[in-house]
């Protein structure tokens, strides 16, 4: 799954550590999600989207062909 | 006990390891000294089981205190530890049967599992960091 987390986080001037703290997860988790090594669970993906004030499909994109 | 999950787990693991080792040596000493009747030795021999159950319980609690990414790393470490253990004991068992390999005392399975789990968890943690 592709995501725009790094771009959206940077646009808000948040560090990885600050985003991790807001979400209540580790900084390693943010790094793993941003680099595409880890796909978050649906509840965490919704929390991320809600925090960023974006629709979930604008943060995460399914890279499987339709 | 409060504090960071990593610190809490390491503390419990260190204390239980110390208890495991000291109770193991104590049983050996009691057996050799002949200071206690045989039925007390049976009781003493199961003491290290407590030292096995405590870190397993601590690991379970630790898993659910971590976030989902860190938990996935620990679960990979647990799977790696179990894989190493099963491969080793099966292979060693056949080696004992057919090529007269020296007997492996089964109490070694406990430290072998924990060492393999620790190595696996560290590997998956570091390999994840290297891909940044």
**How many domains is the backbone of chain B divided into?**
2
How many H/I helices of chain B?
5
Rg over alpha carbons of chain A = 11 Å
Run of helices and strands of chain B: HHHHH
Question: What's the architecture of chain A, going by CATH?
Answer: Orthogonal Bundle
Q: For the report, how would you describe the main beta sheet of chain B?
A: none
Number of strand elements of chain A: 2
Q: Which CATH class of chain A applies here?
A: Mainly Alpha
State the fourth-level CATH superfamily of chain A.
lambda repressor-like DNA-binding domains
Q: What is the residue-mean pLDDT of chain B, rounded to a whole number?
A: 87
**Shape descriptor of chain A:** globular
The neighbouring-strand order within the major sheet of chain A is 1-2
Bin the strand percentage of chain B. under 5%
Oligomerization: heterodimer
Distance between the termini of chain B: 34 Å
Question: What do these coordinates show?
Answer:
- The complex is a heterodimer of chains A (66) and B (132).
- Chain A has helices spanning 5-11, 16-23, 27-34, 42-52, 56-59; strands spanning 2-3, 60-61.
- Chain A is mainly alpha-helical and 66 residues long.
- Chain A has a single domain, classed as 434 Repressor (Amino-terminal Domain) (Orthogonal Bundle).
- Chain A has a two-stranded antiparallel ribbon with strand order 1-2.
- In chain A, helix 2 packs across helix 3.
- The two termini of chain A are 13 Å apart.
- The mean pLDDT of chain A is 94.
- Chain B has 132 residues and is mostly helical.
- Chain B is built from five helices and no strands.
- Chain B has helices spanning 5-33, 38-45, 47-65, 68-98, 109-130.
- The two termini of chain B are 34 Å apart.
- Chain A binds chain B through residues 24-26, 28-29, 31-33, 35, 37-38, 40-41, 44, and chain B through 66-70, 72, 125, 128-129, 131-132.
- Chain B: The chain crosses the membrane at residues 42-63, 75-94, 106-126.
């Amino acid at each position: 799954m592709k995501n725009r987390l790094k771009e959206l986080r940077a646009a808000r001037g948040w560090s990885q550590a600050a985003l991790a703290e807001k979400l209540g997860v580790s900084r390693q988790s943010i790094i793993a999600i941003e680099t595409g090594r880890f796909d978050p669970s649906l509840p965490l993906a919704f929390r991320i989207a809600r925090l960023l004030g974006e629709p979930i499909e604008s943060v995460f994109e399914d890279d499987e062909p339709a | 006990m409060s504090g960071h999950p990593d610190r809490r787990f390491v503390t419990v693991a260190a204390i239980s390891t110390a208890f495991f080792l000291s109770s193991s040596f104590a049983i050996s000493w009691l057996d050799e000294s002949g200071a206690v009747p045989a039925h007390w030795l049976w009781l003493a021999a199961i003491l290290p089981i407590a030292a096995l159950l405590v870190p397993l319980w601590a690991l379970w609690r630790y898993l659910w205190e971590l976030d989902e990414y860190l938990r996935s790393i620990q679960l990979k470490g647990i799977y790696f530890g179990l894989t190493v253990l099963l491969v080793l004991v099966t292979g060693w068992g056949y080696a004992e049967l057919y090529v007269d390999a020296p007997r492996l005392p089964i109490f070694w399975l406990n430290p072998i599992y924990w060492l393999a789990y620790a190595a696996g968890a560290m590997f998956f943690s570091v390999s994840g960091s290297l891909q940044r």
